[in-house]
Amino acid sequence: MENVTDRTSNPFGMTPPCERAVPGYGDANADFHLVGDHPGVHGGVDTGIPFTGTPAAERLQAALAEVGLLRSTGDEPEVGDFFASYLHMCVPEDEEPSEADYVELERYFDAELRAITAHVLLPVGERATEHVLREYTAQLHKHELDMARLHGTEILGAGWLVVPVRDPNEWESGDSERLVAALAEILDRDYHRESDLGRFLAGEETYRVR
């Protein structure tokens, strides 16, 4: 079912229990869903938009723009077939969110993810990758969370194709090019059918490293 809304920021009207939040941003019918940790890690504290306002966010935006998922970059990027959100959308006040904080806000993230029903999930960093692999692929036990190795690889989950992304704060030479190449290859094939097949193949070993 297609979502009918012209809102780019917080299209589903999420109201988490906090004074400041960075809600999901992008196309409510996107095929590609970028998943981050929280605003203090991946940006948006000042802009209110995920993955903006930091040098690391700019590096990631540039890679996404190269394959057309972003039509423009900056503090209010123009999106293509793309949505971004955080596991913990509230802005931390004084310290890192606790495990209980993540649990409390997980339902907001999960509601956005299931409303969008993207075909490709792009978890950024170790925490987001662990969460996505545990909750949406049932394959976490098969993979060591070595983000340098997982970066730009593919894992077929239960209805989603998952492509882990190394935290752009930690990118080294070649990491941007590796992600661009991986996304360009996915965009060149029928990833819709592949993600749908994941509903039946999630229990099999479908991990690939290029």
UniProtKB/TrEMBL annotation:
Alphabetized GO MF terms: 4 iron, 4 sulfur cluster binding; deaminated base DNA N-glycosylase activity; metal ion binding
Domain Uracil-DNA glycosylase-like: 23-153
Keywords: 4Fe-4S, DNA damage, DNA repair, Hydrolase, Iron, Iron-sulfur, Metal-binding
UniProt keyword annotation of 4Fe-4S present: yes
GO biological process: DNA repair
Classification via InterPro entries: UDG_Type-4/5, Uracil-DNA_glycosylase-like, Uracil-DNA_glycosylase-like_sf
Domain of life: Archaea
Pfam families assigned to the protein according to its UniProt record, in alphabetical order: UDG
Gene3D superfamilies reported for this sequence: Uracil-DNA glycosylase-like domain
Name used for this protein in its record: Uracil-DNA glycosylase family protein
Organism of derivation: Halospeciosus flavus
Lineage: Archaea, Methanobacteriati, Methanobacteriota, Stenosarchaea group, Halobacteria
